[in-house]
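If you are new to this repository, start here. Below is one unmodified record pulled from the training split, so you can see the exact layout before writing a loader.
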Amino acid sequence: MAQGPRLPRGRMTVRKGGGNRVRLWELDAKPGSTSARLEQAYLEALQAVDRTEVRHNASKGDPRFTPDGVRDDLLKFVLSDAVPVYIAAELQSGRPGPKYLSVGQD
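And here is the target side for that same chain:
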């Protein structure tokens, strides 16, 4: 049985509450294809933004954190959570990774 067109995936803005606009993912991708890997990276990046927002709101609401403490906590969180998602997508794409990954490798 033939399937109809798939609904676009993702959302219209980077953040759930609005902000910078992005396009929905409209490509139909065969499993294992470059398009499928790019779609997965797109969706994981949106999830990383969501996790970052949740962490930021939790830190802001915690009376133990000063404004500088909130910023530092968020920076540590992004470096340990969101950046690895980006790096994994870069490496999986088959393209050379960010320059900082190849420091000292000439």
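Two things worth knowing about this chain: Residues 31-95 form one domain. Strands lie at 13-15, 18-21.
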